[in-house]
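Box S1 | Example of a co-folding query
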Amino acid sequence: MPLELVTIPCLADNYAYLIHDADTGQTAVIDVPEVGPILAALDAHQWRLTDILITHHHDDHIQGVEPLRARTGAMVLGAAADAHRLPRLDLALTEADSFSIGHDFARVIDVPGHTLGHIAFHFPDSRLAFTADSLMAGGCGRLFEGTARQMHASLQKLAALPPDTLICSGHEYTTSNLRFAATLEPDNPHLISRIADVAAKRAQGIPTVPVPLQTELDTNPYLRAHLPALKTAIGLPDADDVMVFAEIRARKDKF
Ligand code: ZN
Ligand code: FE
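Box S1 (continued) | Returned holo structure for zinc ion
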Protein backbone atom coordinates (compact mmCIF):
# COMPACT_ATOMS: atom_id res chain seq x y z
CA MET A 1 0.00 0.00 0.00
CA PRO A 2 1.45 3.39 -0.94
CA LEU A 3 1.67 6.06 1.73
CA GLU A 4 -1.34 8.33 2.11
CA LEU A 5 -0.50 11.98 1.37
CA VAL A 6 -2.12 15.11 2.83
CA THR A 7 -1.16 18.61 1.65
CA ILE A 8 -1.40 21.28 4.37
CA PRO A 9 -1.36 25.00 3.51
CA CYS A 10 0.52 26.98 6.19
CA LEU A 11 1.34 30.67 6.78
CA ALA A 12 0.75 32.86 3.70
CA ASP A 13 2.03 30.53 0.97
CA ASN A 14 3.92 27.57 2.52
CA TYR A 15 3.09 23.88 2.35
CA ALA A 16 3.68 21.10 4.84
CA TYR A 17 2.77 17.49 4.02
CA LEU A 18 1.69 14.48 6.04
CA ILE A 19 2.44 10.94 4.92
CA HIS A 20 0.79 8.00 6.63
CA ASP A 21 1.21 4.25 6.46
CA ALA A 22 -2.20 2.75 7.14
CA ASP A 23 -0.81 -0.62 8.17
CA THR A 24 1.63 0.47 10.90
CA GLY A 25 0.12 3.88 11.70
CA GLN A 26 3.50 5.55 11.24
CA THR A 27 2.95 9.19 10.23
CA ALA A 28 5.49 11.82 9.21
CA VAL A 29 5.29 15.52 8.51
CA ILE A 30 7.59 17.17 5.99
CA ASP A 31 8.55 20.67 7.23
CA VAL A 32 6.79 22.61 9.98
CA PRO A 33 6.03 26.21 9.00
CA GLU A 34 3.54 26.40 11.88
CA VAL A 35 1.98 23.95 14.31
CA GLY A 36 -1.76 24.69 14.23
CA PRO A 37 -2.72 23.43 10.76
CA ILE A 38 -0.58 20.30 11.19
CA LEU A 39 -2.18 19.37 14.52
CA ALA A 40 -5.60 20.02 12.97
CA ALA A 41 -4.84 17.69 10.04
CA LEU A 42 -3.52 14.96 12.37
CA ASP A 43 -6.64 15.32 14.46
CA ALA A 44 -8.99 15.21 11.47
CA HIS A 45 -7.42 11.90 10.34
CA GLN A 46 -6.92 10.54 13.86
CA TRP A 47 -3.24 10.00 13.10
CA ARG A 48 -0.41 10.07 15.65
CA LEU A 49 2.74 11.86 14.48
CA THR A 50 5.89 9.71 14.67
CA ASP A 51 8.45 11.58 12.54
CA ILE A 52 9.31 15.16 11.57
CA LEU A 53 11.36 15.46 8.34
CA ILE A 54 13.19 18.75 7.71
CA THR A 55 14.25 19.85 4.20
CA HIS A 56 16.30 22.96 5.05
CA HIS A 57 17.07 25.50 7.74
CA HIS A 58 14.88 28.48 6.75
CA ASP A 59 12.49 29.65 9.48
CA ASP A 60 9.40 29.21 7.34
CA HIS A 61 10.19 25.46 7.21
CA ILE A 62 11.37 24.76 10.79
CA GLN A 63 9.87 27.29 13.17
CA GLY A 64 7.18 24.88 14.36
CA VAL A 65 9.51 21.90 14.88
CA GLU A 66 10.19 22.30 18.62
CA PRO A 67 6.58 22.94 19.69
CA LEU A 68 5.42 20.06 17.46
CA ARG A 69 8.06 17.73 18.96
CA ALA A 70 6.94 18.81 22.45
CA ARG A 71 3.29 18.08 21.63
CA THR A 72 3.82 14.73 19.88
CA GLY A 73 7.18 13.26 20.94
CA ALA A 74 7.99 12.68 17.26
CA MET A 75 11.56 11.96 16.09
CA VAL A 76 13.25 14.78 14.15
CA LEU A 77 15.25 13.97 11.00
CA GLY A 78 17.31 16.42 8.95
CA ALA A 79 20.60 17.03 7.16
CA ALA A 80 23.78 16.25 9.12
CA ALA A 81 25.48 19.06 7.20
CA ASP A 82 23.10 21.59 8.72
CA ALA A 83 22.83 20.10 12.22
CA HIS A 84 24.39 23.29 13.66
CA ARG A 85 21.50 25.43 12.39
CA LEU A 86 18.57 23.02 12.64
CA PRO A 87 16.52 21.97 15.68
CA ARG A 88 18.16 19.06 17.55
CA LEU A 89 18.22 16.04 15.25
CA ASP A 90 17.38 12.54 16.46
CA LEU A 91 18.67 11.24 13.13
CA ALA A 92 21.23 13.20 11.07
CA LEU A 93 21.08 12.30 7.37
CA THR A 94 23.55 12.32 4.51
CA GLU A 95 23.00 11.64 0.83
CA ALA A 96 21.75 8.17 -0.07
CA ASP A 97 20.83 7.42 3.57
CA SER A 98 17.52 5.70 3.79
CA PHE A 99 14.95 5.27 6.53
CA SER A 100 11.50 3.76 6.62
CA ILE A 101 8.05 5.21 7.14
CA GLY A 102 5.82 2.19 7.65
CA HIS A 103 6.46 -0.29 4.86
CA ASP A 104 7.86 2.37 2.52
CA PHE A 105 11.34 3.81 2.67
CA ALA A 106 12.81 7.21 1.87
CA ARG A 107 16.08 7.92 0.17
CA VAL A 108 17.86 11.21 0.94
CA ILE A 109 18.98 13.33 -2.01
CA ASP A 110 21.32 16.30 -1.53
CA VAL A 111 19.88 19.28 -3.44
CA PRO A 112 22.11 22.29 -2.65
CA GLY A 113 21.41 25.64 -4.29
CA HIS A 114 18.67 27.45 -2.36
CA THR A 115 20.68 26.58 0.78
CA LEU A 116 23.81 24.44 0.94
CA GLY A 117 22.35 21.82 3.26
CA HIS A 118 18.98 21.44 1.49
CA ILE A 119 17.88 17.81 1.14
CA ALA A 120 14.96 16.15 -0.62
CA PHE A 121 13.15 12.96 0.40
CA HIS A 122 12.28 10.41 -2.28
CA PHE A 123 9.83 7.58 -1.52
CA PRO A 124 10.24 5.35 -4.59
CA ASP A 125 7.45 2.87 -3.80
CA SER A 126 4.87 5.58 -3.16
CA ARG A 127 6.12 7.69 -6.09
CA LEU A 128 6.58 10.78 -3.90
CA ALA A 129 9.41 13.33 -3.70
CA PHE A 130 9.49 16.16 -1.17
CA THR A 131 11.60 18.89 -2.74
CA ALA A 132 10.63 22.05 -0.76
CA ASP A 133 12.57 25.02 -2.17
CA SER A 134 14.77 23.10 -4.65
CA LEU A 135 12.48 21.94 -7.47
CA MET A 136 9.23 23.89 -7.09
CA ALA A 137 5.99 23.78 -9.08
CA GLY A 138 6.88 25.59 -12.28
CA GLY A 139 10.13 26.92 -10.85
CA CYS A 140 12.96 26.50 -8.37
CA GLY A 141 14.11 28.24 -5.21
CA ARG A 142 16.26 31.35 -5.22
CA LEU A 143 20.02 30.87 -4.97
CA PHE A 144 20.60 32.19 -1.45
CA GLU A 145 23.66 30.08 -0.62
CA GLY A 146 24.61 27.86 -3.55
CA THR A 147 25.69 28.51 -7.13
CA ALA A 148 23.74 28.10 -10.33
CA ARG A 149 25.94 25.09 -11.09
CA GLN A 150 24.98 23.44 -7.79
CA MET A 151 21.26 24.09 -8.24
CA HIS A 152 21.37 22.88 -11.84
CA ALA A 153 23.02 19.62 -10.71
CA SER A 154 20.45 19.24 -7.91
CA LEU A 155 17.55 19.67 -10.31
CA GLN A 156 19.13 17.19 -12.73
CA LYS A 157 19.05 14.54 -9.99
CA LEU A 158 15.35 15.18 -9.38
CA ALA A 159 14.60 15.25 -13.12
CA ALA A 160 15.98 11.71 -13.36
CA LEU A 161 13.34 10.27 -10.97
CA PRO A 162 10.49 8.28 -12.55
CA PRO A 163 8.28 10.78 -14.43
CA ASP A 164 5.13 9.72 -12.56
CA THR A 165 6.73 10.80 -9.24
CA LEU A 166 4.59 13.41 -7.47
CA ILE A 167 6.72 16.47 -6.71
CA CYS A 168 5.69 17.97 -3.34
CA SER A 169 7.28 21.41 -3.07
CA GLY A 170 7.31 24.05 -0.36
CA HIS A 171 5.35 27.06 -1.61
CA GLU A 172 2.38 28.26 -3.63
CA TYR A 173 4.41 30.28 -6.14
CA THR A 174 3.10 28.44 -9.19
CA THR A 175 1.11 31.28 -10.79
CA SER A 176 4.04 33.67 -10.94
CA ASN A 177 6.48 30.88 -11.86
CA LEU A 178 4.37 29.94 -14.88
CA ARG A 179 3.81 33.56 -15.88
CA PHE A 180 7.59 33.89 -16.03
CA ALA A 181 7.96 30.57 -17.91
CA ALA A 182 5.54 31.87 -20.54
CA THR A 183 7.91 34.78 -21.29
CA LEU A 184 10.47 32.15 -22.38
CA GLU A 185 8.19 29.64 -24.13
CA PRO A 186 4.98 31.46 -25.08
CA ASP A 187 4.02 28.76 -27.60
CA ASN A 188 4.63 25.68 -25.40
CA PRO A 189 1.22 23.93 -25.48
CA HIS A 190 1.87 22.09 -22.17
CA LEU A 191 2.61 25.44 -20.54
CA ILE A 192 -0.50 27.11 -21.97
CA SER A 193 -2.77 24.36 -20.66
CA ARG A 194 -1.00 24.23 -17.29
CA ILE A 195 -1.47 27.99 -16.82
CA ALA A 196 -5.21 27.56 -17.42
CA ASP A 197 -5.37 24.62 -15.01
CA VAL A 198 -3.48 26.52 -12.29
CA ALA A 199 -5.69 29.60 -12.71
CA ALA A 200 -8.80 27.44 -12.27
CA LYS A 201 -7.37 25.79 -9.14
CA ARG A 202 -6.32 29.09 -7.57
CA ALA A 203 -9.72 30.64 -8.29
CA GLN A 204 -11.17 27.89 -6.07
CA GLY A 205 -8.42 28.17 -3.46
CA ILE A 206 -7.06 24.70 -4.32
CA PRO A 207 -3.30 24.04 -3.94
CA THR A 208 -1.39 23.61 -7.22
CA VAL A 209 0.83 20.98 -5.59
CA PRO A 210 1.74 18.17 -5.77
CA VAL A 211 2.57 17.89 -9.48
CA PRO A 212 3.75 14.85 -11.50
CA LEU A 213 7.40 15.21 -12.50
CA GLN A 214 6.37 14.77 -16.14
CA THR A 215 4.41 18.04 -15.95
CA GLU A 216 7.53 19.79 -14.64
CA LEU A 217 9.66 18.28 -17.39
CA ASP A 218 7.18 19.64 -19.94
CA THR A 219 6.81 23.15 -18.52
CA ASN A 220 9.41 24.10 -15.88
CA PRO A 221 12.10 26.22 -17.59
CA TYR A 222 14.76 25.20 -15.05
CA LEU A 223 14.40 21.59 -16.23
CA ARG A 224 14.53 22.66 -19.87
CA ALA A 225 17.82 24.61 -20.04
CA HIS A 226 19.27 21.90 -22.31
CA LEU A 227 16.70 22.47 -25.07
CA PRO A 228 17.99 24.29 -28.16
CA ALA A 229 14.70 26.19 -28.53
CA LEU A 230 14.98 27.58 -24.99
CA LYS A 231 18.65 28.50 -25.46
CA THR A 232 17.73 30.38 -28.62
CA ALA A 233 14.77 32.06 -26.92
CA ILE A 234 17.06 33.69 -24.35
CA GLY A 235 19.68 34.63 -26.94
CA LEU A 236 22.29 32.04 -25.87
CA PRO A 237 22.07 29.39 -28.63
CA ASP A 238 25.62 28.13 -28.09
CA ALA A 239 25.85 28.36 -24.29
CA ASP A 240 26.17 25.29 -22.10
CA ASP A 241 23.22 24.14 -19.99
CA VAL A 242 24.51 25.65 -16.74
CA MET A 243 24.98 29.08 -18.32
CA VAL A 244 21.46 28.92 -19.72
CA PHE A 245 20.11 27.83 -16.34
CA ALA A 246 21.96 30.72 -14.63
CA GLU A 247 20.54 33.23 -17.12
CA ILE A 248 16.98 31.95 -16.61
CA ARG A 249 17.39 32.13 -12.81
CA ALA A 250 18.82 35.67 -13.04
CA ARG A 251 15.95 36.82 -15.25
CA LYS A 252 13.39 35.42 -12.81
CA ASP A 253 15.04 37.32 -9.95
CA LYS A 254 14.24 40.55 -11.83
CA PHE A 255 10.82 39.43 -13.13
ZN1 ZN B 1 13.64 28.32 1.93
FE1 FE C 1 10.68 28.48 1.90
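Residues 113 and 146 are 4 Å apart (CA to CA). DSSP finds nine helices and 14 strands in the chain.
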